[in-house]
Structure formats: structure tokens, C-alpha cells
Design goal:
The structure is a single chain. The protein is built from 13 helices and 29 strands. It is α+β, with helices and mostly antiparallel strands and 677 residues long. It has 3 domains: 244 residues, no CATH class; 93 residues, no CATH class; 257 residues, no CATH class. The strands form 8 sheets. Strands 1, 2, 3, 4, 5, 6, 7, 8, 18, 19, 22 and 23 form a 12-stranded mixed beta sheet that branches. It starts with 8 loop residues before the first strand and ends with a helix. The relative contact order is 0.10.
Length: 677
């Protein structure tokens, strides 16, 4: 096919036997990938960029779970309309693909499947627009060589204003006879003194203030997460911004006369009106999947039956999005069919998020010193049902999902998620005293030992922590696990067994029981991030409406973390060869440096890379208890031989791919050269 562009072309969809949840696709760009480059058995690929248009029936039982759907504006047919941007990358001859679509859930508008699985580079003028163009943008072509069809569909309406071309959804606001008001809470910590701050999380789009003089408007400050809130007098602040020395009213920002001070927690509560119906974003993911899985489109060059199954992939916030989607019942479409066949929730911890709430802020997450007490680390956590003895609540993530809508599920986390996102609650009872049963027929839990939230680039740099970041590259494990997920949903071949730290062998312990070595100049964290029992009001669980701001905070759950060996490297879970045959200590934690936060608090999303001394003389000079590299390995060749042997073990167990061995060894060699230079 010759490259071509179709600007705002309304693609008329031919869908046989499928309802009209996707009613139209506007194709804005259609062209060959890399000039028709061929990828293995799948052959050449093509890409489509544009907008998908949806219409859902608010009376359909599959849509009753959408918060405020009853207040949505309706078209002439009584349906709720919305739209979302999309990027589709597929084999030009669809029947040459492997029959599996990967839907990559965008993270605050960004798309990461190519950068992660293909080791591609997010560079170039067209990348942010969802249009990978260069060879570097497609990396080593792994996903295409395997024959996957790739799809990104926007689901979040408030993505950062700086990402105007990112994946996003365009969702309607509620319309009712009487305005629908509610309280919105915004907390923030600044790293330098400023006089005004957005009401949104970081640089997202906030809900505007509806009544700046409302008595509910309160600004407080405190010095720690659990510290006492102190009310700042109303005449000292306003909903405004400082522009050229003048205070200008602005219903999306908060201004403080004396300025916001670094490393203090500010929290403003205000009234807003008529929010977007954000649960439609989850419905859009569901309906896009069903359209491709059960339908056909001549204008997208997609015949019926080309897509047999769909795997949802989400990294960080999108991992929590997929956990929420399954938990809330969005895997059943309007025709009462299963949408996703598989779910890979990566680095989402045991958390969910504000993805189907009135005035929900989808970007709000939970970290040791960022975003506090939002509906993120909330019960239930485990797949099987538990009862909280404190609150009396009973629930499980998968226990209530009907078998006909149950996907295969991975929960994959790094060490950071144990320290910064309560990952131990995925597998333990709420008191941390024993493990819960696993749903082995449907689910797996994998711990990527000795890793931070996302691998640091190499050579590693220092960002928000006291130590340089952790470059342990676990993408090699994820490539293998992705292919095993595809086998699981395709022919029923089970994925490799779960691997995570355990209570029985003491590889999962309380934070104060970690036997981390005493390393000169390295501070070990004394506490983890906590998950609390939080009361958002009587309408939260049943209606998705928060009525208590700030919420009432009860006792915290018990959080456990991985145990380590004499080098400080973790003992449990899936360990890359570089952890088993180490050149350094790799941790999932780092502590804030003085510029970013309290220096005794775990820094958000960062781990640490602490190389061994090169030789005994250097080790003794710096009083390092860990053996030096020279004392461990006779040569680089010997070291690489040991890495190869550990890699072969993981290949045999199904956790690595033999085709990746050469690159894994090359990467190990680069690290050797760096630490021995």
C-alpha cells in the first residue's frame, strides 16, 4: 500500500452483527510503517491515527456501573455520545498477524508499549502526537515480529495541557435540572517557594471552582502525612494567580499571600459543579476492544475475524486503571460479551484509582510524599475475598467476576511498589500474618526483584533521591511474560508460576526486619508508604460520590517488604541475572534528597544503584562490608559466563526468551565496564 493521509476522513464502519457502541471512526492519518518494512511472518505494518466516536445506552445493564450516567446528555436516539483519539498499528495483511491485539492504556496521555517492549526511543516531532515515524521510534520491532496488533485509545479527559496531542478522551459533563455540586480536594507539595499553584495534580486540567466564596473553601497546611492540619485564614489566600506582580482571579489556581513553602503539605478544598462523566473513559476502552474483537472495518483494513483476542497492558497508572476496570465490571460489553481476554497490570501495586467517581481525579495516585488519602490504596487488594476485621467490609478483586467475563490477569510489580505502593497486600491477609490463596486458574503475581518503578537509563543519574537511580532492566522478563500471556489466552498453556516474596521462607518481612548491610553514606528507610482505612462518606462505595473532604483516616494496614542478602539484594521473586550475579546492590527504594523532600522519606518511584568496590583495597578504604568485584570474579569473561548460566535457568523456566540472551549479555558487559572503569 502506498503511504497516504486522510485528513478528517469519516470512515464508515461495516460491522456485522455488532451494536453501535463505536459509531464512527475519523481517520486523520494512514500510512505504511517505515516505508513498508517487513516484520517476520507478519510482514509489513501500517498505522492509522484518528478519533473514535462512541454512543452508549445508559439503560443497558453493562453501563449502569458508570457513575452519573443517568445525568448524561442524550442524543436523539437516547444514547450518550463521546469520543477519543486512537493510534492503531497493525499488519497490512491482517491475517498474517498472530490474532492478538495489545491495547496499551495511555499513562496521562503518553504511550509506552513501544519504548518498553521494543526498546524504542520516544524522540521526534511526531512522537507525542501518537505517530511513531522513525526507525528509532519502533526500536527492535519485537512486538511486530511477534505479529501483535497494537492499539491505543484515549480514556482520560484531563491529561496535561502540555500533551495536547496525547491520547485523550472527550467526555460529556453531567446535565441535570439542578446543578450537581460537590467538593474537590487538591493537595500538593512544592520544591521551591511559589505564590500560586494549580488545583490539579501536577500539570493536569483541574475542575474549576464554582463558588469561590463558599464557606466550604478551606486551605490547610501540615508538616507530615499524619500531621495536624492548620487552617490558613481565608483573607490570606484566594483562588487566583500572580501575574506580573498582580493578583488575578483564576478559578483553576490557589494563591497564598506569603507564598507556599517547600516540603510542607498544602490542601485546599473547594466546590465545583457539573463534572465530566469520567467512567465513560473505561467504557470507551471496553467498547473499542469489542469493536475490533467482534467487528470489522474496511476503512481500517480489518476483516472480520482478524482479531481473536485482546490483552490489555497498563504500566503504573494504567495498571491501576485495568485493575479498576476488571473490579468494577467493565469487562462485560453492551452485548454481554467478554472484552479483554488478558490483563497485564504492571507496577500498579495493590492499588486502583479515581477512574469512575464523581469529580474523580484520575491522575491522583499515592506515594510516600505525594498525593495523600485519595481513593488509590483502598480495600480490597487480593484477588480472593477477604473481610476487614476493623471495618467489616468484605470483598475481593476477582472473587465477584462472573466466569464468562473473567480474563487472565497478571499483577507485576517491582521492589518500589513494596516500599511505595503497598504491593504486599496483593498476596497477604490484612494483618500481614499469612498469605491468601491464589486463583491459579486465572491469575499470576510476579515480583521483579531489585527494581525501581521503571528502569533508569544507563549510565544511571540522580534525580529526586540521595543515590543514583536503579537501572535494573526488567523489560527482558516482561517480553517473555507477554508471550506466555498470549499463549495462555490463545491455547490455554498456563503462564509460568507466580513468583513473589513469601512469609514462609522469610523473604517477605516487616521493614524493620530487613537485614540491609551497613553501607557508609547510605541511609536505609525506616518506614514504607502506608495504606489507610479511609472513610469518604456513605455514598462512596455505592454511588461513587465522595462527601467527606478531607476524608476520615483510620488505622493503616500492615505493609511488608522483601528481605535481602548480605549484599542488600533481594532474595524473593523474579531475579534478573544481574541480581543473582551482582556487580552492585539494586534497591527499590531511595530517600529524598534535600531539594525534593524530607530526607527520611522514600522518594517517589526511585530506587538505588550502589556499585561494589572494584578491589579489596578500595573496599577496605571505604569500609564497605560487601566483597569487591575483584574478590568475586576472576575476569569479565567469567562474570559473563555466570550471567549466561543464570539466564539459561530463567529461559528454561519460561521467564526469559532465548532470543534475548545476546542482548542481555551485552547489557551486562556494559555495566561491568562502567563499574570497573
Amino acid at each position: 500500500m502506498n503511504s497516504s493521509s486522510r485528513v478528517l476522513f469519516a470512515a464508515i464502519l461495516f460491522v456485522s452483527g455488532v451494536s453501535a457502541e463505536v459509531v464512527r471512526v475519523d481517520v486523520e492519518l494512514h500510512e505504511d510503517v517505515l516505508g513498508g518494512k517487513s516484520y517476520g511472518l507478519a510482514g509489513p505494518y501500517e498505522k492509522f491515527l484518528g478519533t473514535m466516536h462512541f454512543a452508549v445506552d445508559p439503560t443497558n445493564s453493562a453501563n449502569e456501573i458508570i457513575v452519573d450516567i443517568e445525568h448524561a446528555p442524550l442524543n436523539a436516539d437516547g444514547l450518550v455520545e463521546f469520543s477519543a483519539t486512537f493510534t492503531l498499528i497493525k499488519p497490512t495483511q491482517a491475517d498474517r498477524g498472530n490474532g492478538t491485539m495489545l491495547l496499551g492504556v495511555a499513562n496521562r496521555g503518553t504511550r509506552r508499549m513501544l519504548t518498553f517492549f521494543n526498546h524504542a526511543h520516544a524522540e521526534g516531532e511526531t512522537w507525542d502526537a501518537g505517530n511513531p515515524t522513525t526507525a528509532e521510534n519502533f526500536g527492535d520491532g519485537f512486538l511486530m515480529e511477534q505479529g501483535f496488533t497494537l492499539l491505543w485509545v484515549g480514556w482520560q479527559f484531563d491529561v496535561p495541557v502540555t500533551r495536547v496531542t496525547g491520547s485523550r478522551a472527550f467526555l460529556p459533563r453531567v446535565e441535570s435540572d439542578e446543578p450537581i455540586e460537590g467538593l474537590v480536594r487538591s493537595d500538593f507539595v512544592v520544591t521551591e517557594r511559589v505564590f500560586d499553584r494549580t488545583l490539579a495534580d501536577r500539570n493536569h486540567i483541574p475542575y474549576p471552582v464554582s463558588d469561590p466564596e463558599a464557606p466550604e473553601s478551606v486551605l490547610t497546611v501540615r508538616d507530615s502525612v499524619e500531621g495536624e492540619r492548620r487552617v490558613i485564614p481565608r483573607d490570606q489566600w484566594d483562588f487566583a494567580r500572580l501575574a506580573n506582580g498582580e493578583v488575578v482571579p483564576d478559578m483553576t489556581r490557589v494563591y497564598l499571600q506569603s507564598g507556599f513553602e517547600p516540603q510542607r503539605i498544602y490542601e485546599v478544598i473547594y466546590k465545583a459543579v457539573n463534572p465530566e462523566i469520567i467512567g465513560l473513559g473505561l467504557a470507551g476502552l471496553r467498547d473499542a476492544v469489542s469493536f475490533f474483537k467482534y467487528g470489522a472495518s474496511a476503512d481500517l483494513n480489518l476483516p472480520a475475524g482478524a482479531i481473536d483476542r485482546v490483552i490489555g497492558y497498563g504500566m503504573s497508572q494504567p495498571g491501576r486503571t485495568l485493575r479498576t476496570l476488571i473490579y468494577m465490571g467493565f469487562n462485560e460489553d453492551e452485548q454481554h460479551r467478554k472484552a479483554f481476554d488478558g490483563i497485564i497490570a504492571q507496577i500498579g501495586g495493590a492499588a486502583r484509582g479515581s477512574f469512575n467517581l464523581r469529580f474523580g481525579q484520575a491522575s491522583r495516585d499515592a506515594h510516600p510524599y505525594l498525593n495523600f488519602f485519595y481513593p488509590t490504596d483502598i480495600f480490597p487488594f487480593t484477588d480472593v475475598e477477604q473481610t476487614d476485621p476493623v471495618t467489616g467490609q468484605t470483598g475481593g478483586m476477582l472473587s465477584h467476576v462472573p466466569e464468562e467475563f473473567m480474563p487472565k490477569v497478571y499483577n507485576v510489580n517491582t521492589s518500589y511498589e513494596y516500599w511505595g505502593r503497598v504491593a504486599s497486600l496483593l498476596t497477604t491477609t490484612l494483618d500481614g500474618k499469612r498469605h491468601v490463596p491464589m486463583l491459579d486458574e486465572y491469575a499470576r503475581v510476579y515480583h521483579l526483584a531489585g527494581s525501581q518503578h521503571l528502569p533508569s537509563s544507563f549510565p544511571p543519574t540522580q534525580t529526586n533521591g540521595q543515590n543514583v537511580n536503579n537501572p535494573n532492566d526488567f523489560s527482558w522478563l516482561m517480553r517473555a511474560l507477554l508471550l506466555r500471556m498470549n499463549m495462555w489466552v490463545t491455547d490455554g498453556t498456563p503462564a509460568p508460576p507466580s513468583r513473589f516474596p513469601l512469609l514462609d521462607d522469610a523473604t517477605l518481612v516487616a521493614p524493620d526486619q530487613v537485614n540491609f548491610p551497613a553501607l557508609p553514606g547510605i541511609n536505609f528507610p525506616t518506614v514504607t508508604h502506608k495504606a489507610y482505612r479511609v472513610d469518604y462518606g456513605p455514598h462512596f462505595a455505592s454511588d461513587g460520590i465522595i462527601t467527606k473532604e478531607p476524608p476520615e483516616v483510620g488505622p493503616a494496614f500492615t505493609i511488608l517488604v522483601p528481605q535481602v542478602d548480605a549484599d542488600g539484594n533481594e532474595l524473593g521473586g523474579l531475579r534478573m541475572p544481574g541480581i543473582v550475579v551482582p556487580l552492585a546492590t539494586y534497591t527499590g527504594w531511595n530517600l529524598y534528597n534535600a531539594e525534593y523532600g524530607p530526607t527520611d522519606v522514600v522518594s517517589h518511584m526511585s530506587g538505588s544503584f550502589l556499585p561494589f568496590a572494584k578491589n579489596r583495597q578500595e573496599r577496605e578504604a571505604r569500609n564497605d562490608p560487601r566483597l569487591s568485584i575483584e574478590e568475586r570474579y576472576g575476569s569479565k569473561a567469567q562474570y559473563l559466563g555466570l550471567v549466561a548460566a543464570e539466564s539459561m535457568k530463567l529461559i528454561g523456566e519460561g521467564y526469559l526468551l532465548d532470543q534475548d540472551l545476546r542482548q542481555i549479555l551485552e547489557q551486562a558487559g556494559v555495566i561491568w565496564d562502567y563499574v570497573t572503569r
